[in-house]
Amino acid sequence: MPDDVDLPGEGSEDNDGMRQGSSVPRPPAAKDSSPSTGNPFGAAPSGSPGDAPADTGGDQNWLLPAPAPAPTPASPHRPHSMAAPNRDNDLRRTFPAFPPRTSEDARFAATWWGNAWVSALEEGALDAKRLARGRSYAQQGHVDAITVTPGLVLAYVQGSRPRPYRVQVRLRTLGDADWDRFLDLAADRTGHIAALLDREMPQALAECGVPLLPGPGDLEPQCSCPDRGHPCKHAAALCYQTARLLDADPFVLLLLRGRGERELLDALSRLSAARAARAAQEQEPAPLPGVRASEALAPRRLPPLPAPLPAPAHPEQPPAYPASPGGPDPFALDQLATDAAARAHALLGTARDPVGELTLWQDAVRLAAAHPGSGLTAGTRALYASLAAATDRTPADLARAVAAWRQGGIEGLAVLEEPWDPPAGRFDRARPLLLAADLPAFRPWHNHLTHPRGHIQLRLGRDGLWYAYESEPGHDDWWPRGTPDLDPVGALTGLGTPTAL
After folding, report:
1. Dmax of the chain from CA atoms?
2. Most buried by CB count within 10 Å: which residue of 102, 166, 274, 428?
3. pLDDT tens digits, 449-473
4. What is the DSSP string of 236-247?
């Protein structure tokens, strides 16, 4: 049914501007000749809550001679709107128009207090058809910017006619006694204040005996349209949109009842501070704990410490760690947990932790060497890659260092990486011993003795042991081999037959 065809019982206005039942003819309303822009409010001049009383459909002074219009520069038409943000303050708030709703949700409001507002509207209405059309207007975005002041909601609502209607809904404000009771109850629980700051309305606070939410018949709508329904469809549309304002900010409801947000928060802050100060004054000071100095300084014999518990025979096995997407590698966690348990067991038994004195690189080599197996196998590739990246080395460097660590621990790693000049004595006696074992003359360099064919090498460690190394002939790619020994010939045992050496 089109909007300008009124339902039975509704008022109507004919097309030439004469209200039905009036004995005085009135001139037709001026039509807006501006082109349509899709805005339902673009066909009428602007207005504000401080405008003249509601438009009645025509100029009351049309019988007087009309003065000659003064020439004015052409300007675009401005729509009817309550929006005037520059005039807003704590007791006047303007909200932009809501866009049309795309969903057909049976519940127009989303919060319990917004639905309580809708219930007050629907239970106090006299015509369900007008409510349905008003709800449709609200869903289609026919309500322009809404201005809220104490006891009053104002907005222009667009019907099917070019000129929108000026609509207001009144609600009784609360008296000082009601506000004092509300503030006392809100200050009793800090959760109430926190909920209000979070734009929530606690149900216990709204049902404290102060009539915050309206009941049936408490909403008093007025509209400039000729319909005398209670409410008309335009006022119903404004009420429905006001429920959406309450959803977003319950302070809108408190403003309608007469108090602005800033005033309420200041009053709650003062009341809470006064109560806290009064409670502090009424509370008796607690006695200071302590002992007399004479008792604290009196000589006394302390009981002996209990005997330490025996250390476990071996560190326990760490629990299994499940793999999870994006989580740490369970294999690496198992390695770290096993190593930590072994270190703790050694520290408990010897009161020493030699691992704590290692460098980052030495500790990384130790962790990799503790893993069973040798070389870059499928099981060790991920561990080697992570440890090498953490120490700015390559996995190949780490693999060579692990071989040296397994050969002689931290001394074996030092032999691999730190050439040094040994004093005369043991190093000088090594060459005759090798010659006596039918081996060729090894070439000396620092603490190294190298086979003439360049495939066998002996290195003297600072611990006095000889460490054997092997390389492909003609390549300077030495890898630790065998077991270190005090005798240079014994260190070569197991590397091949004397003929091959």
Report:
1. 144
2. 166
3. 999 988 899 999 999 999 999 998 8
4. HHHHHHHHHHHH
What the block records as the tokens of 487 is 């005798």
Cβ contact 189:196 at 8 Å: no
Q: Locate 133 and state its tokens.
A: 């059309």
Q: Is the separation of the CB atoms in 149 and 92 below 8 Å? A: yes
Give the CA distances from residue 247 to residues 182, 228, 397, in Å, rounded to whole numbers and listed in that order. 20, 29, 66
Q: Is 138 left (phi over 0), alpha (psi -120 to 50) or beta?
A: alpha
Decide if 156 contacts 82 (C-beta within 8 A).
yes
Q: 366 with 330: CB under 8 angstroms?
A: no
Q: Which residue pairs from 94-99 have beta carbons closer than 8 angstroms and sit at least 24 positions apart in sequence?
A: 94/145, 94/146, 94/147, 94/148, 95/145, 95/146, 95/147, 95/148, 95/245, 96/145, 97/141, 97/143, 97/144, 97/145, 97/146, 98/138, 98/141, 98/143, 98/241, 98/244, 99/141
Note whether 161 and 218 are within 8 A (CB): no
Give the pTM. Answer: 0.44
**Interatomic CA distance for residues 375 and 379, integer angstroms:** 10
User: Amino acid letter at 145?
Assistant: A
Q: What are phi and psi of 152, to 5 degrees?
A: -150, 135
